[in-house]
């Protein structure tokens, strides 16, 4: 059997989620190594000292340490769902929204969901303030979904941007499911997140695997 690229991942990390979705959609088989964030294996630290997931080790020794790099790598191999085209055809809004999520939204999401982990030096405020700051960005998406009248951002299939940001909105919902489901005012965003959570591809990439240890039998992911 040919050696497969090695993907270090953590099931619940939104960055790792979006990388796994792209690998799955592009039908690329990798060796999956589930890690525990508080106990990163030395094999991963040796190739990626920053010790955050996902990390992809290619057969030629190249190391991809950012989820977006892994996503772009995948579509360059087998883009059967035209994910690259969805990005290029909507590049202005794609870049604008992705930048908001990977920066401002993520900042407030972390302080909303994990409020007690931060102190004044981290810019912490009441969790409801961070919730409402993140909500301002969701209003932008609500207006976009309403204007386009589509079930995903651009048409009736998930785009590059949908997959890139929905794992973070899913975390936002999990921070207070009752508030999100009953009171959160962006109803089209709500339906969109639920659709993502029920998507068969999402549920396939969320199958649990035990944490990897050296000498474990390989776990393959991407085709199964």
Explain this structure.
With 224 residues, the chain is α+β, with helices and mostly antiparallel strands. It has two domains: 6-80 and 203-221, Glutaredoxin (3-Layer(aba) Sandwich), CATH 3.40.30; 91-152 and 159-198. The protein is built from ten helices and five strands; from the N terminus they run βαβαββααααααααβ. The protein has helices at 14-25, 42-47, 67-78, 83-89, 91-113, 127-148, 160-175, 177-182, 187-198, 200-205; strands at 6-9, 30-34, 55-57, 63-64, 220-221. A five-stranded mixed β-sheet has the order 4-3-1-2-5. Helix 1 packs antiparallel against helix 7 (160-175) and helix 5 packs antiparallel against helix 6 (127-148). The protein is globular and about 50 Å long.
The main sheet orders its strands as 4-3-1-2-5
Instruction: Give Rg in angstroms.
Output: 18 Å
Work out the helix count. Answer: 10
Number of domains: 2
Instruction: Report the average pLDDT across residues.
Output: 96
Low-pLDDT parts are: none
Large-scale geometry: globular
What's the count of strands?
A: 5
Specify the biggest β-sheet: 5 strands, mixed
Helix proportion range: 40-55%
Please report which band the strand proportion falls in: under 5%, 5-15%, 15-25%, 25-35%, 35-45% or over 45%.
5-15%
Q: Would you tell me the structural class of the helices and strands?
A: alpha+beta
Order of helices and strands: EHEHEEHHHHHHHHE
Could you give a quick summary of the protein structure above?
The chain has 224 residues and is an alpha+beta fold.
């Amino acid at each position: 059997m040919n050696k497969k690229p090695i993907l270090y991942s953590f099931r619940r990390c939104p960055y790792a989620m979006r990388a796994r979705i792209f690998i799955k959609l592009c039908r690329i088989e990798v060796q999956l190594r589930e890690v525990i964030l508080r106990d990163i294996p030395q094999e991963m630290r040796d190739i990626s000292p920053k010790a955050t997931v996902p990390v992809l080790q290619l057969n030629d020794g190249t190391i991809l340490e950012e989820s977006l790099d892994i996503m772009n790598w995948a579509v360059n191999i087998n883009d059967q769902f035209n994910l690259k085209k969805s990005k290029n055809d909507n590049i202005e809004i794609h870049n604008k929204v992705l930048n908001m999520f990977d920066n401002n939204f993520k900042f407030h999401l972390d302080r909303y969901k994990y409020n007690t982990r931060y102190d004044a030096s981290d810019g912490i405020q009441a969790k409801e303030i961070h919730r409402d700051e993140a909500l301002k960005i969701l209003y932008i998406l609500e207006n976009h979904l309403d204007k386009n009248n589509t079930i995903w951002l651009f048409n009736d299939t998930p785009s590059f941007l949908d997959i890139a940001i929905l794992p973070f909105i899913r975390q936002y919902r999990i921070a207070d499911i009752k508030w999100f489901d009953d009171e959160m005012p962006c109803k089209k965003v709500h339906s969109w997140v639920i659709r993502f959570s029920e998507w068969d591809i999402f549920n396939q990439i969320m199958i649990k695997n035990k944490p990897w240890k050296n000498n474990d039998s390989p776990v393959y992911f991407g085709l199964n």
